[in-house]
Structure formats: structure tokens, C-alpha cells
Amino acid sequence: MTFKYNNPSHSKKVVSAVLAGMMALSAGGAALAAEATDAGQSQTTAVSNTAAPTGLFSDIKAGYWAEKHVYKLAYQGILLGEKGLFRPGDAVTQQEAVTMAIRFMNKQDQLNDTSAAALPTTMEVGNYFKPYVALALELGLIDKTEEEAVDVSKTSWGQKPATREWITKLLIRSLNKDAEAKAQNNQSTSFADNASISDGSKGYINLAVSLDLAKGVDGNKFNPTGSVTRAQLATFFSRGESLTDTAYPNTYTGYVTGLEEGRITMIVDGKLTNFAVNSNTPYFTKDSETRSPQANVQLYTKVQVVGSAGNASYVEVIDATPQVETVEGTFARSLSGNKIGVFVGENYETFGYDESTAFIDQNGTAIKLSDITADSTIEVQRETFSADKKTVVIRVKSGIVNKSDTGVIAEVVTSGKTIKLVTTAGTTEQYTYSDNLMIRYQDRILTLAELKPGSAVKYTVRDSVLQTIELSQGVEQSVRGTLVEIGGNQSTLTFKREGGSLEAKLLVEKPEVIINGIQDASLNDLITDATNGDQVELTLNAEDRVTRIQVIGRQMEPMNGASVVSYNAKTKVLTVLDSNKKPFVFTLDEKTKLDYNSTKPTMAGLESLLSEGRKLDLTYVGTRALSVKVVYKYEGTISNIDTSNRKISLLSGNQTVTVPYTIAPTVEMYNKSGASLTDLKIGDNVTVTLGANQDYIQKIALKSVAQFEITGIETNGRIRVKSDLLTSQFYFDQATLTGESGQTLTASQLTVGNLINVTFEGITPKAVQVVKRTLAEVTSVDATSVTLKLFNGQSETVPVSGPVKVIKSGSTLTTLGSLTVGDRVEMTKDTDNSTRFRVMTILSKQFWSYDGVGNQILVKRETTTDTNYRFALGTGVYVHQGDNTLSVQSLRDNDNIVLYLLNNIVMEIQKQ
Hints:
By secondary structure, the protein is mainly beta. The strands form 9 sheets. Strands 32, 33, 34, 35, 36, 37, 38, 39, 40, 41 and 42 form an 11-stranded mixed beta sheet that branches. A 7-stranded mixed beta sheet has the order 45-44-43-48-49-46-47, with no helix packed on it. α4 packs across α6 (130-139). The longest helix has 11 residues, at 94-104. Residues 53-115, 116-185, 188-251 form the SLH domain. This is SLH domain-containing protein. Pfam families: SLH (PF00395). Keywords: Signal.
């Protein structure tokens, strides 16, 4: 059997709220342990001397799965800790479980030390627990005959771990269903381990199952001897409160009537009650285990507050639905005595209001009662949780508006045909519009799509409907068409709009050009043609000038593997045969893109290579050559290495290319000097560079990917990196740079500390991509996901599929189970796309000083020979105490700190 609760990391131990609700969790050390006895129990202070905590338990962190329940009960005084610890994973004993039940039932006032002295000698318990156990016997929560028969030869009755079977009986009896349970004792349970369940417990278990209080664990077993932890019991008890009408200490349930900075006002038992709140006040909702934003507390919702002396220590939204009713009618007039007259249907009714009643118009803007005109449709909202049914809001739902005004467009909602504006007076208005809405800028008629938020406008409204909008200045807009011509001085552009009209536009000085596959594209990369030009989307600014040109389609044709027949340098006419020996004639011009084995290709350099038989790859539109590439290399995967006949075959695209070599070609591999053909294998992705005559292999460069952390960036295009503890450097001037999401970056956007994947062609970097790097604490882990608490305090559950690498204590493991709750990790994607977790090293130290120049901290030496006392700080090191973020400068001499290090760099400092 499993008691049902929502703990993701304990999915096999789910505990029902009702069953659990019968438990009251006693204190950990101080309230759990009794005074010293012959049984060897430890001496502790009395319960009255151990107050409920005013801060967090150090072993219950923000985001812990049972945090909500532990702290609610702690502030109610039901849970107590010892020396700032709660010990959530400890098992609960029988004497503790009995104490829980008595406290939950709020029967402490019936405790009697005299009756405690009469406990059976076999039921040995700590002195503190004796009155609770004696009362439990009186109330029938435990059976004296049953308990006297328990084997106590190895441990005392009170110290025995409370098993699931035993707790089930205790709780069913707490529900006053003992007779009902006994009536079912002659029935077997449906669990596979039914034979392991004692006959005297089967009826209780059957009843718990029928009440949906319990169900089986793996293999449909009850596991009668299983134990329950303190955190689980805290959760059960907390949830059980909603199923009783017992009044608990310092606990107030009511409806929110006021929300101000630092204060919540509620009606509790018909009386107004104020509670002070601050940034440390935890907020929760009834249906969630995790903390909730303060904004989730809304007026007129049902809320529970735990606190004392007017201070809220815990706030939980019990019902998020505002307890208000709405009456709609037609406003008649204002009456004396703070009342208004309203026609509701055919009936005339009056409604009162006071200084706290809000008057708003249809746009949510505050107005005065005198602003409401007769015959306006209004809504009167009244709270429903008190007999007074106080009016809280009077809202104008619709009133006739005729006006002209100026303002700024805030939002255009085409689905609802509404436009929201902010007037020059600062108020927000919203109006509907019809298909007849006229939008213009100067003498140009605009479409609704060109009406952008932020536009300054003058507008007119008639009968509450927008009639005209006139822009005070131009707006950015987008148009699409075919690119026909770029002016000779590159200051104008001619295009054919979708629909057929030819238009010319002025260009800004340096318009942005976006062409997929071309980095840092310019106007010279565009294809202009009356019929086959680039399909483009143009962005026009407020002055109607082109600021951005994005190519969204090209009609060019490719031709790979063509052979030169002839080339005329005067006419720039090139004749080729395609791979099927079909002839084609193309014309080259100053816009033709050139590519051969040179970093700065020129037309003269290309022409010297266009001899008969030369292999080319081309792109063209009609007879115009858009690009000409002299084939000097092939890219693909190795399909065969024939050392006997000295040739290598590649699968390049959809074709196999076989290239011979005369002498063993140079082989380049990243991180391996002196590589040769024997280092290559079938399936390797390579670039094969040809000799000057395209007839043999000159060099083979293996394509590979490696991951680094940037340690330095130089202005000459060189980057310093490290991988693990090895450092190196390379130039990236020939590489494309992209961010975490694939967006194009410039070198200036790279920063020290970035994790990057570098794609090498041999030893030359061709691509650099920034890798997302998440530093966090593991708060939960199962077979398919990890829940992390990020350094910003947010919690994130990350589903993990595919290969996993956990690098921990020098070993690389391959399962998520290798992670432990509390581990600090760096989560990234490795070069093979596997999810990688690097677990940080932990050191406990005493702070000495901070070296701002070297960005290091110094800690106290443990011995005079200790040299491990200076630590470098990582970029953005997270310094905190609990959930409070600190600066490293705030640390003081002798502060106890915990360091979390990655490759000997401090990523997190936790002040104790």
C-alpha cells in the first residue's frame, strides 16, 4: 500500500490526504526525544521552550517538495525542529505517530500525567510521550491487548518504527471507523502480499482502499512493514486539515478585502483583520506544492493565513475565484445617502456604496460617480461572503461616446475588432471599429496591418465606434515583391509589388540585407531581374525608406560538375558542358560571385583558371551566371579507401565521387599532429582538397566538433579556450558565429566564460556556436527528468531523453540516477547532442578576504602547509545565504562558507 501524496521523488510512497490528515507530526529532536531514561533516551528541553521557527529550517530549502506543508505546520506550532533542523528523511516511531494523531485531533487539553503513570510495562516510551500514549489508549486509537503482544525484545515499544499497517489502524480508528473496519477483517485484501498482512489488520486496509485512502505499490503490494518519513507525514497532516473543522493555532481563514504594500486585509469570522507581509512571506495555492507569486492573491478570494501578532508567516490561496456577484442594469440616477438607482430589467433597485467602492469605465479607467450618464449600462459587483453584500465595483459597461482626441496606439486586436489607445492625458481607452475605419498618414491610405503599437495618432469616435485614425508620423511597414533593380549609386531600389505594380523606393545609407546561407550579406549579393529577381520582403521606415531587405525566395538554378568548353575574357561569355554533356552558354558580370582556392577571389584570378576541361559548379538565372566556383575540393563522407589503387571515394550529396592520389595526401585532424590515411575510417566526414589540375588529392581534412570554454578574446581574431584543464588558442576569422538559438553573432558578442562548440575542418575552425549553460541545484531526479533550482531562484523541470553523461568525482556515468538531490551541476549539450551534467566539487571553508584585482577569494588555511587557500571566481558567481543573494564583497572574515567548484573555478558560494 502507498499513502498518496504528490512528491515526484517518492512516487512509490503516495499518501492520501484524508488518511494522512489523521496524523499530527511531533517535534524532531526536542519534542521527539524524551527526558533521560534508563532506556538511554537523550535529554532535551521541554516543548514549551522550543518555539516554532521564525525562519527556514536549514535542511528544508526553498523549492523542496514538502516545503509548503512543513512550514505551514511549523508556523502553526504543530511542528518543531531542533537546532534549526527538521530532518525530513527520518523515519517516524510509534510514540511519535501517536503524538501526531493526538495533536491533529487537538486533544492536548485531555493529557493527564497521572494516567500516563499507569502504562503497561511492556509499552515503554519516552517520558515526554507517556501522556500522549496513555490518552491514545483511553480514546481507543491503539488497542492495549494488541500492543502488549508486540515483540519489544530488540527495541522499546515507543522507539519501534511505525509501519504502514500499524499506522493504517491508528488512522482508521482516528476516523471513528474501528467497528466498520473490524467487520471486514474476514475478507482478504486484493494485494499480492496479502499473506504478509496480519489478519487483524486486513479489515482496516480494506476500508482504507474502499475509501480511496490507500493503494498498492509496485507489483500491487501493500508492503505492510514499510516506514514513513517525517516530510511525508508533514504533508499528510497539512492536507488533512482541510477535512476537519478543528481550529488550529495562529490560523485564520477568510476573504481578502484589501491589498496594500506590506499588508493584507481580510474578513475573518465577520471581523476585519490586518496582516503584515514582507518579501520573505511565502505564498502558496491550495492545488500546488510550489511557491506562488504574491500577485496570485486577489481581492475577494478565500485565503488562509498562519501568523501571530498581526504578522503573516504563511499565506495560502484556498479558493482563487473572487467571491462576488454581478448585477447588470441601466443607470437611472445618483441618490442621497450614498446610493444609486438602477433599472434591473423592469424593476427599479437601489445599491449602496462607500469610500472603498471603485467606479470604473468600460476601459477599466477610474472615474467619478458624476461621470456616469443616465441610461448607461452598468455592472454592480457585490461581495457574497458577508450578509451585507457590500458593493465593491460599479463599472460602466457601455455608454455612448462621441469624441475626438489624440493619443498613442497601445494594441490592435483584429479577432475582436478592438483598438486600445492611451490618451495624452494618460488614460487607457478601448473602442470597437468597423470595416469602414479610415486610417491615413498624410495623403496615403493605410491598412490595419500598418497600424503599429506606439504610433502617435489623432482619432475620432462616434456612437462609441472608431471612425478615423490619422497618424501624426509615419510607421514602419513591410511590403513584398520581386527585386528588379538596384540603382547605380545604391541609393534606390526598384521592385514589382505582389499584384504587379512597379515601384521605386529610396534606401537608407546602409540597409540590412538578409539572405539565408550568406553571412554579412550586402546589396551586391542580391539578384535583380525583371522576371527572375529575388523574391523579397522590404521593411520601410517612417520616412518610407528601405531599411531592411530579406530574400524570401530565389529562382536560380544550380549546375554542378560542369566542364569548361571555352571562355572569352572580352565578352565574359563562358561555354560549358553539364554532367550529361549538354552545352550551355552563360555571361559573367561584376555581380557574379566567384569562388576558387583563394581567400580574396578576383575576376582576373578566375579567368586564368577557366581552361578547357576545368570542372565548375555554377548557379544561374537564364543565361546570367550568378556564381562560378572552380571545383577545388569535395565535401562528404568517406565510402571507400583503396590504398592499393591509390584512390578515395566520397558520398558527396547524392553522388559518389572517386578521386585518385599519387603520393599519400596530407591528412589534417584537430588535436592530432602527424595524422595519416590510417587514421581515417569509412563514414568520416571530410573535405578533400584537389591539386591545381583537379586530378589528384592534395589534402584531406577531417571534420570534427570540440567543446571549449572561452578564457580570452583578442582583437586580432584569435580566441583563447580551455577544455577540461587543457588550454589552447585558434583564429576564428574564417568561422561563422552563432548563438544558443542559432542566431548570427559577431565576434564582439562572444564573452569570456561562454561555452562553445567549434566545428573544425582539419585544424581550421569553420563554425563556432555558443552552447546553453545552466548552473543549478538538483532538487529532484527520476528516470526521465531532472528538476533544477536555478541561481535566479526559479525552478525548472528538464525532460531528458537520449544519451546522458554525468561527470562526477572524475568518472563519467550514463544514467540520471547518478545525480543526487543537492548536487550542484552544470547542464549542457555535449558535441554528440547528449545531455551532460558536470557535478561540482564541494569544499567547506572559512572566508578570509576578496581579491578584486584577480577576482579571487582567499580562505583560512587549515594548516600552515595548506596551499589550497586561493580560489578563482567564475563569471557571475552566485553568492547567497538561503534564498538571499549576496555580493562577494559582503562576506566577512571568519564567515563559514561552502564553495562549489567546476574545474577549480568557484561557481557558487553559500554563506552558512
